[in-house]
Amino acid sequence: MKSGYDFVIAGGGDVECGFVNSGYLILSGPGAFADRLADNLARQRALGADTSPIRRAEARELHPWLELGDVAAIGWEPASGYADPVATTLGYVTAARRRGVAVFEHTPVERLHLASNGGPAGRRVTGVITPDGTVEAE
Questions:
Q1: What pLDDT sits at residue 119?
Q2: What pTM does this model have?
Q3: For residues 113 and 126, is the Cβ–Cβ distance under 8 A?
Q4: How many CA atoms lie within 13 A of 104 on its CB side?
Q5: Beta strands 13-15 and 133-136: pairing type?
Q6: Confidence (pLDDT) at 120
Q7: Which long-range contacts (CB under 8 A, 24 or more apart) does 60-63 make?
Q8: 47 pLDDT exceeds 90?
Q9: Which site from 2, 68, 80, 93 is most exposed, i.e. has the minimal number of CB atoms within 10 Å?
Q10: Which has the closest alpha carbon to 34: 83, 90, 72?
Q11: DSSP per-residue letters across the chain
């Protein structure tokens, strides 16, 4: 993954989000924690994530200062990272505006307007209630 223009929203084009590809290393103690980590890594791989269990030597290559004395399982996701939260939020706003969405800044939401949709969750958001009135969603 690359940094920067790596954030694409359907129909919104590329939007700067400040993504930094740092990878993600997760360590687990022994017993049920290690079993859950192995299960989670497998589930993530089944969903298309590039995650895998790695050995201690591989973890130390990635982070030489790790203390692995009581670590029973280690997971690694090389494509993971973090984004600038402000840039990400502004990216969503920019992409939404490109698609014709009205954005109301400095307008607190007091409640969600919900309607039954018959789906598994039972309800969906159809608008928001603000101090200035209700804003309906399509």
A1: 63
A2: 0.61
A3: yes
A4: 14
A5: unpaired
A6: 62
A7: 62/23, 62/25, 63/25
A8: yes
A9: 2
A10: 72
A11: --SBS-EEETTTEEE---BEE--EEEEE-STHHHHHHHHHHHHHHHTT---EE--HHHHHHH-TT---TT--EEEEETT-EE--HHHHHHHHHHHHHHTT----TT----EEEEEE-SSTTSEEEEEEEETTEEEE--
Q: Identify residue 60 by its one-letter amino acid code.
A: R
* Tally of residues, the chain: 138
Place of tokens 């954005």: 103
Of 11, 4, 5, residue with least CA distance to 95:
11
Q: Count the Cβ atoms, other than its own, within 10 Å of residue 87.
A: 16
| Residue 58 contacts residue 78 (beta carbons within 8 Å) | no
Burial 26-59 (b: 16+ CB within 10 A, else e): ebbeeeeebeebeeebeeeeeeeeebeebeeeeb
Q: Is the pLDDT of residue 94 over 50?
A: yes
Which pair of tokens denotes residue 100? 């014709």
